[in-house]
Amino acid sequence: MAVSARPLVGRLIARRRGTWPWGVWVPSALIALGMASPLVYLLYQGISVAPDVWARLLATRVPVLLVNTLMLTGFVTMGALALGLLLAWLVERTDLPARRIFGPLLLTPFIVSPLVMAISYVGFFGVGGLLDKALRGLGWDGAVPSPYGLGGTVWVLILSTYPYVYVLMRAAFRGLDPTLLDVARCSGAGRARIALRVTLPLLAPALSAGAFLVALYALADFEVPALMRYPTFVTVIFQQLTGRYDSSAASALGTVLVLLMILMLWGQRELWGRRHFVPERISGRPWPAVPLRNWKIPALALIVLVLFAGLLLPMGILFYWLVESWLIPQALAVLWGTSGRALLGYLLNSLWVSAAAATVAVALSLPIAYGSVRYRDRLSQTWAWLSQAGQALPGVLIALGLLSLILRFLPGLYATVWVVILAYLVRFFSQALQPLRSGLAQVPAHLEEGARLLGQRPLGAFRRVTLPLLWPALAGGWTLVFLSALRELPATLLLRPAGFDTLPIRIWTAAGEGFYAQAAPAALLLVGLSIPLLLWLHGASSAPGSMRSYG
Amino acid sequence: MQKISRGFLLVGVVLGILVPLIASLGSGGVATQGPGELVIFSGRREPLLTPVLELFKRQTGVAVTVKFGSTTALAQEILQLKEAGRPVPDVFIANDAGTLEFLQATREAFQSYTSPAIERIPERFRASDGSWLGLSGRSRVIIYNRDLVKPEELPSTAFDLIHPQWRGKIAVSNASDTDGFVPWVSALRLILGDELTKFFLLKLKENQITILAEQTDIRKAVGRGEFALGLINHYYVYLQRHEIDPAVRDVGILYHDQGPFQLGTLVNATGAAIVKGATHREDAQRFLDFLVSPDAQRLFAELNFEYPLLPGVSIHPEVVEDLPSGSLEAFKQMPVSPGDLGQELQATQQLLEEVGWF
After folding, report:
1. I need a labelling partner for B347 at 20 to 30 A (CA). Which of A13, A241, B62, B272 fits?
2. Rounded to a whole number, what is the distance in Å from the CA of B130 to chain A's nearest CA?
3. What is the SS3 string spanning chain B?
4. Over the stretch B156-174, which tens digit does the pLDDT of each residue have?
């Protein structure tokens, strides 16, 4: 899609004013600076932490946490990459039976949010949990594998993040041109050589994008390591924030974590960001399917195992708890007698806060997307880049940064829902911006120019031509932000006003007190809400080139 | 193009007005306090405090608004509300009197109040400057799973827990547990000094002690047999014995360090204080008087198995049964007061950080 570097509309303005498109530029700058302010303030606080606190932390906590966090991130990334790549290959490139059914099914672990998956694993494998009770009932006296620690955390995080890799890899496999294979073969390359020299380099951008997404996720995740008793930077910062009066240690640890995340963002860009293998054209011929032969059974077994571990087991446990809570009268009283109506309240809280955040995020991303796509100058790229700073901030740190900012500059907002919405906005802004940018890039500027030449005013041209074409991207971005906000736990936990509970908060509270059965209805509601949204996103992503930006 | 920008600005302005409006509708809490209504922040649990508040309302007719949460989080919120220049609550109820002492010593967060009713509480459970008041007492004990440990195998002192026979079998709470583990470590530091305390903690870690987030986690984990022992406050043992599921009720209580040349048991207290800048000062004072009245003290004893601090109110019979020598005065206690412990809060948390207690 050719987008001229400076389309007519821009040139017209520039010529008339001989200057910047202020109308886009000023809002963009304000929004970008606002979005980046928690990050900047956090780093500023981290730098101003007293040297002796730094020295103490660097000598005691930081090494242990660094090892813990990097081990977790490394294992999860490798596991999710391997699993996502293997499953995508099986579905796209082999003669696996029923691969049309498995194709979309393998995305389903995505609907079980990591929080829900973690509590179901803890409730199932924990001592005195469902498995333990069942085995004891059968007279078996051995130990159940413990869900706690690195192993359990890695397992749950792999199951909840491999779909990212899987989606990207499937698209990448489909984008491969089979004629490349022919050429390689004609040149006398063997199968291993083709895989190594042709296929792998072509898949590398998608692989690195997947690895990067998963690694950022693992680095920032709070609920899984917290529930599975595995200390990482994020869980310890949370502990510091809730258990101490002095947030300097939290700021210092947060600074280290942010630097780690920025290092990763930079590394990904330097290593892979600039490499693009764009096939000139894809021949319509399908890629020849690799016959699995004797490997069919193991391949099917793997897929069944993944679906069982990632979907059936957690959902089964939730339904079991739900039924249990109906059958045991005391639990029933606690659950429905006092909180049946309350549950509706949590649901409504979740819905409206997420919807508000999504709406504001989409609205605010419009000028930045417009500026960075239509006027490709350095400044608007900078605004686009700055506005996504929240990506490098785990929820815990967003809360810390925002809280300090608000106490200092906007005390009136302290302990209001507004702060929670702001946190979602900063954290998930890039999820609204990126689909919008790729959507806008696909709307030719010539259409707007045509409308202008036919006498439309700029706003009219935008509203009547561009906006209708942008709806899918706007809706996609809105849904992504909504879904992420719906599942957000740590920032909500730290910033919410008194009595403002969302679904994840209820799940967390109930799980914290060991009342898993009480967590079930809220968890099922959360899963149920995710299904139509993800289905919609999946449907929308069948359109070429769109899912990449949704990752 | 100016039109487009105007459009964006318009959207921004509309959202900027609408969203805070909606937000302010959604936000409740302290902002909604009416006139003549006592506002309380409570670090004590809702099921425990609600009956006490009901009784207060019935006796005095004063309306009460409460916010529940963890003691530290609420304390932070009070400090932050002050910083933001927003209205503060009138009364703060903490599950650890030492925290109140700490807040008074470092931030002067409270105002002094004393009365004949309050002076009946033993002196070691009150602030020397009258800024806070102890409400109920609790002991640091060991909870054990009776299926896993026989009473004769139990250690007599907490220092036995570093022996290999307990490797991987003990649960404790983390450095945020300011009403349980942290004051006990403060007491150890005051009696033994930093070096020895640090050595002991490191030995415990070497013995693969498991650090959980809260004492409720400990009692539940010991109840279901995940750990043989747990370091805990005494009333959690009774809460566990009253669980719905009979399979997890079989836990025992051990008052450790009662022998000759041993350190004794730490008896700590919960507390309440009137926040500086409170708008309903008289009602707050009435409320504090009420909290040390026999009626309220009896509720603490009955509902949460704690020791009433007002002389003459009896301890729950189930608790008395397990008390060494059958009464609060007769068993061996560590010679420290909640006030002493509060002064040490920050230093103890720093020590725990150095040890890597998370």
Report:
1. B272
2. 23
3. CHHHHHHHHHHHHHHHHHHHHHHHHHCCHHHHCCCCEEEEEECCCHHHHHHHHHHHHHHHCCEEEEEECCHHHHHHHHHHHHHCCCCCCCEEEECCHHHHHHHHHHHCCEECCCCCCHHHCCHHHECCCCCCEEEEEEEEEEEEECCCCCHHHCCCCHHHHHCHHHCCCEEEECCCCCCCHHHHHHHHHHHHCHHHHHHHHHHHHHCCCEEECCHHHHHHHHHCCCCCEEEEEHHHHHHHHCCCCHHHCCEEEECCCCCCCCCCECEEEEEEEEECCCCCHHHHHHHHHHHCCHHHHHHHHHHHCCEECCCCCCCCHHHHHHCHHHCCCCCCECCCCHHHHHHHHHHHHHHHHHHCCC
4. 999 999 999 999 999 999 8
